[in-house]
Amino acid sequence: MAGMTREDILRQLRERIVAFATSRGLREGAEDLAQDVMMVLHEKYPHVTELIELVPLSFQILRFKMLDRHRIMLRHGEYNQESVDDQPLVDPGDDPAMQAEQKERVTHLIAALQQLGERCQKIFRLKLEGHSFPEIMNILGERSINTIYTWDLRCRKQLLALMGGRWETLHLDGKGQRPNRETVG
Question: For each of the chain's 185 residues, which pLDDT tens digit applies?
C-alpha cells in the first residue's frame, strides 16, 4: 500500500464506511453518511494522508455522524412511525348507535338540569364556566366555602336522582354496563 495515493485510500475507505454504516442498520443513509465523512475529511483534514491516521479519524467522524442521524430521527419520531398501510381506512369516529346514545344522554341531562332549582342550576353553570369553589363562593355571596361544597353535593345527588340513579344510559343489549357501587362485592 506504499504506492497508493490519497484518493485511492479515500475510495477504499469510503467503501468500508458504507459497509460499516449498512451493518449498523442505516441502509438508506449509508451512502449519505459516507459522503458526509468524505466531505469532512476533504474540508477539515486535507493534511492527513497516512492510512494509519485516516482510518481511525474517518471512523470517529462516522460515529459522530451516525449519532447525529439517530438524534435527528428520534427527534422527528421516525423510529415509531406507523406504515400508512397499517392505518385503518374507516372513520375512527363513533358509530351511529353510539352517536344516538350520546344524543339521548345529553337530552336526558338537559331535561334533568332544567328540573333543578335555581341555585343548583347556577352552581352547575358556574362550574361549567370553569370557576373554582372559592370563586363560586364569592359570586354567590356566601361566607363559608363549606356551604358551597354542601350545596354542590346536594345538587349532584339531586341531579343523579333525576337521571334515574346512574350517569350513563342503559344499553339496549345490556353490554358495556358498569355495575352500581351497591352491587359490587
Answer: 556 777 888 888 888 888 888 888 777 788 888 889 889 988 998 888 787 888 899 999 989 988 888 888 888 777 666 676 777 777 667 678 888 888 888 898 898 889 999 999 999 999 999 999 999 999 999 999 999 999 999 999 999 898 888 766 545 444 444 444 443 33
Distances (CA, A) of 143 to 16, 20, 140, 150, 164: 80, 75, 9, 13, 33
CB atoms within 10 A of CB 160: 13
153 CA to centre of own chain:
35
What gap in Å lies between CA 130 and CA 120, rounded to an integer?
16
Cα Dmax for the chain:
99
Residue whose cell numbers read 422527528: 76
Give the C-alpha separation, 79 to 55, whole Å.
30
Q: Which are the contacts of 16, defined by CB distance < 8 A and separation ≥ 6?
A: 55
CA of 67: how far to CAs of 23, 32, 62, in Å? 15, 14, 9
- Report angle CA 74, 16, 73 to the nearest 5 degrees: 5
C-alpha span between 30 and 164 (Å, rounded): 66
DSSP state of 90: S
DSSP assignment of 20-42: HHHHTT-TTTHHHHHHHHHHHHH
